[in-house]
Queue: 2 jobs
Job 1
Amino acid sequence: MTKPYNRLEDLYQRDLVFDTAQGKTLPLERILKRTVKFYPEESDPFIFDIVEIGAGNGEFASQLAQEQPDSKILALEIGKERFDSIVRKIDRLQLKNLTAGFGDARPVLFNRLSKDSVSHFYILFPDPWPKNKHRHLRLMQQPLVDVLIQKLNVGGKITFISDVKDYSEWTAKLLSQSPLLSNDFSPQTMTQELPQLVSTYFKRRWEAMGRQFWHVRFTKNVSK
Ligand SMILES: C[S@@+](CC[C@H](N)C(=O)[O-])C[C@H]1O[C@@H](n2cnc3c(N)ncnc32)[C@H](O)[C@@H]1O
C-alpha cells in the first residue's frame, strides 16, 4: 500500500506518481512495469521521430502523419475508447507512419525509446489538475521531464500546451532547470500564440468555451 505523505517534496523524492488507470498515486517503479499494446503491432526498430503523450482521439497525430509522411509518429493514450479512435483513424486514412500505443505512456518513454532519438514530444492539453493540492498528480514531473530530455535528439523539441496557465508555468519551470534546453519563446516564458499548430479535440472544446492557451516550447541544444 502507498505510504501517506505529508509534503509534496516527500512525494517527489519517493518518485510517487499518479496512476490514471487506478486513480491513485503509486511508485513510478510499479508503473514502469506495465505493458503497453501497440497498433499496428510493434516491429523493429522501435524508433520514432515524433511522440505525442496523451493523444486523445488522435486528431493531432493523424493530421501530423498526413502532413509529414516521412516522419514516424507514436501516439500514446491510456483511455481505451480514445485509443480505439486512433486505431480507426490509422485504418481509415491508411496511415503507415502512425503507431498507437494503448496504456500508460511512461513505460514507453522510460524503457522503450532510445536516447537521443526523438525530434519532437507533444503534450497537448494534458489533464490539468488545476488545484494546488492536486499538482502532484500532474503528468509533468521531474523524473518524466528528465527522461524526455534524455530521449530527445539535439535540435529536438518539447511542445506543451495547456488552458491552465499555472500548469504551463509549472512545466516551463521544470524544463528551464535543465542546462541542456533553451526556451524557444525567450525572453518570454511562454506564448499564447502558436498559429502553425493544428487543432485537437480538446483545443476546439476549450476554444468554444472562450478559454485561452499557454504554449511552452523548449529545444535541446546539447547531448549528455
Ligand atoms: C485532456 S485529454 C487531451 C487529449 C488530446 N491531447 C487533445 O488535446 O484532444 C488528456 C489525455 O491524456 C490521456 N492520459 C492521461 N494520462 C496519461 C498517461 N499516463 N499515459 C497516456 N495517456 C494519458 C488521457 O486519457 C486523455 O486522453
Note: The radius of gyration is 17 Å.
Job 2
Amino acid sequence: MGSGGWFAYAPRSGVAAAGVAGDGRTPDGDLRPELADVGRLLRRGVRGVVGVARAGEVPTLTSILLEHLGPGVDALDVVEEAWAGYEHVNVQAGLDAWLAASGAQVEVVGIVGFQHRPFGLGDLLTGVHGHDPFGPRPGNVARTNLPSGPDGAVRACVRCGLYLLDDGTSRSVVLLRGAEPETGIDQVTVQVVSTGDGLAAHTAAQVREAALRENVFRGQVLSFGGEMFGRGRTVLAFHRRPELAADQLVLPSTTLAAVERQVVGVAAHKERLLAARQHLKRGLLLYGPPGVGKTHTVRYLTASLTGTTVIQLTGNALHLIGEACSVARALQPSMVVVEDVDLIAEDRGMHPGHHPLLFQLLNEMDGLAEDADVIFVLTTNRADLLEPALAARPGRVDQAIALDLPDEHGRRALFELYRGGLEVEPGAADDAVARSEGVTASFLKELLRRAALVAGDRLPRVSRSDVDEALEELLDTRNAMTRVLLGGTPHPDGDAADPDQP
Ligand SMILES: Nc1ncnc2c1ncn2[C@@H]1O[C@H](COP(=O)(O)OP(=O)(O)O)[C@@H](O)[C@H]1O
Ligand SMILES: [Mg+2]
C-alpha cells in the first residue's frame, strides 16, 4: 500500500474520503492504489465530484485544514500532549482505540516533506509552509513498524499525519508526529485543534488516557538499552517471558524462601499489606560470585510473575533509569532489573568508588511512592564495591541476598538437574559431588554437557569414567584460570571455570 496520497481510516461506513481527483489520481498526481472494498470505491466517487469541481487547484495542508475546520480557525487553541519517543507505539495504539470508539468520521491525511522540519498544527493553519515546495504537504501516509510485543510483533505507526475528525457537531484535527532524534525531536506529540468548545483539550486528554490504557508494554518483558543506534534513541526490545519451574533453580531452601517472600510474597499479599499501611515498593540485591545463579534467579522471578511488567536495563543503559522507572510506575505491578549493577555503576564514575549512576538509581528508587507495586532487583558479583554507596543511601534496598557456591547437597541437585535425559552410571554422581567442592552451579551444568560429549556414540549412556574425564578437564581449566587470576594462591571464591562468564 501507500502509493495513494490519501488514506481513508474510516472505521465506519459512509465516511467521506478526500482528495482523489476524478481521474483516479491523487492531487499529487500519484496513481491511486487498488481499493479493496466497495465502500471505499463509493467514497472515492463522492470525493471525485469535489475533485472535479476544483480541478487545477492543488490542495495544501493549509487548504485542507481550513476546508475541514471552516471559518474562524485563528481563534482556535492548539492543545499538545507529548510523550517520550519510545512511547510512539503506545500513542498510536491509544489513538487508534480512541478513534475507533469515538464514533466520529475519521480520515487520515498523510504528510510528506516533514523530515527535518519542526512544525505544528499552528504553523500548518497559518500556512507558513504553504509555498515551500519541499516543505510539509499532503502525500503518502508514512508509517514505521514499531515493536509491539515479543516474537517480532509490530504495529504500523504513523510517523507524521493528520487525522480529520467530524463527530456531527464539531470538527477536529489531530496531528500525530513521532520522534525524530536526528532532527532533535525526541518526543512523540499529538496536537489537537477543534471547533468544539474545549474539545481540543478534552480530546488530547482522552488520547493520553487511551495511550496508557492500551499501553503495549504492560505485562511484558522489556529491555531498555540506549544509544546503540544513534544518539538519543532508546532501544527497546520485547522478550518472550522465560519458562522456568522452581525445580530448575537450585538454591538452599532458606535462600529461595527469602527471595520469594520479598518478591512473590509481597505481590500475593498486596491488599493486606496496603491495608496495614506497609509499603509494597521493594528493593532486592542478589550478590555472589559469577555462575551461582543470580541471572537464573531473575529469570525464575520473571517466569513466576506472569502479568508483571518487567523492565531490564542492559548494557550502558543505566542512564535510562529515569525512563525505566516512569514506565514501571505507569505499568504496575512491575519489576525493574539492573544486572551487574557494579559494572554499570562504575562505568561513568569520575573516581573509583564514586557511582553517580548508582546514586541516580537509588534516588529514583526513593522517588517512587511507597505504595507503588514496583520491585527493584539488582545483581552484582562485587557487593564489596557497592557497599559504601548502598550504606550511604539506606532504605532503598530492603534486602541483600547472598547466593553462594553450592554445597554438597546443592551440587547433587545440580548434577541431577543437568543430567537431563542422560543415563549416568551409578556412582558417577557421588564421585563428581565429592570432587567438585568449591565449583559454581554453571560448572556442574557444563560438567554434564562435557561428559555427554566424552560419551559420544554411547549416548544416552554415560559412564563413570566419562564423568571423571570431563571433571579432570574442567578442574584443569579452573586451576589454570585460578593460577592466572590469583598468582597461584587458591582462593575459595576465585573459581573462574564459569563457561557463561569468561
Ligand atoms: N542455582 C542454580 N540452579 C540451577 N542452575 C543454575 C544455578 N546457577 C547457575 N545455573 C546455571 O548456570 C548458568 C549461569 O548462571 P547465571 O545465573 O548466569 O550466573 P550469575 O548470574 O550468578 O553469574 C545459568 O544459566 C543456569 O543454567
Ligand atoms: Mg549474571
Note: Residues 1-53, 482-502 have pLDDT under 50 and may be disordered.
